[in-house]
Amino acid sequence: MTETTTTIALITGGNRGLGRAAALHLAAAGADVVLTYRSNTEEAAKVVTDVQDAGRRAVALALDTTQPADFPFFAEEVARVLRECWGRDSFDVLVNNAGAVTATPVGTTDRSAIDEMVGVHFTGVVLLTQELLPLLADGGRVVNTSTGLARFTGDPSYSVYAAVKGAVEVWTRYLAKAVGGRGITANVIAPGPVATDFGGGYLRDDEELRRALGGNAALGRVGEPDDIGAAVAALAVGGLGWVTGQRIEASGGTFL
């Protein structure tokens, strides 16, 4: 297969929620997609079909971002897919989106919950990015995912989740400096309250909560997945190549 100059984006946790929205908006912007999923092959296959229906190419790969020992093997799989599907040895955009949430109420937090939050939201992001950097094209872009809770304070049950996301924001600034010589940008997207299935879909399904949280936003509503997908696409393939090391909050102006 001859080499293509099509933009290729790799999105972790691209089978559902914000990752799925990012994949579809990137496809709409003209990018092909490699998405990862942890276990739900049917969800991943559906996103692949949706991207293909948008006229772009997509591949789904299994990945557990809490298992860094598997990252070298995953990088080899990515390299294989790039060669076989695109005739390339690199991709252009890395979106570190995969995540989960575990309650960590202040005063009753278990060590296992801390380890889980650090593992998926920080250790996994740092080590996976490190593993994939040799495959990321010069002039590429990295988009890491944070949360509005790193700026404003919400339910104390999210204390460790928010704190670890704050660490991602700091690390992203250092990453931006480290890879700038290759023309690679690194930025953070920080969603506010968004109606997805995250955390069991509590915000998506509770209309009273949606109204209450939406009342805290300048735009008067909570976010939808498409709001964040569009913002990710703007950072990843839009005309923001001179923006790096920045935190972009997509929260509708929550708690301004």
Automatic annotation (TrEMBL):
Database matches in Pfam families: adh_short_C2 (PF13561)
Keyword Oxidoreductase: yes
Gene3D superfamilies recorded: NAD(P)-binding Rossmann-like Domain (3.40.50.720)
Keyword entries, A-Z: Oxidoreductase
Keyword Oxidoreductase annotated: yes
Entries under SUPFAM superfamilies matching the protein: NAD(P)-binding Rossmann-fold domains
Ketoreductase domain mapped to chain residues: 7-197
Highest taxon listed in the record's lineage: Bacteria
Single GO term (MF): oxidoreductase activity
Family: Belongs to the short-chain dehydrogenases/reductases (SDR) family.
Name listed for the protein in its UniProt record: Short-chain dehydrogenase/reductase SDR
Organism: uncultured Nocardioidaceae bacterium
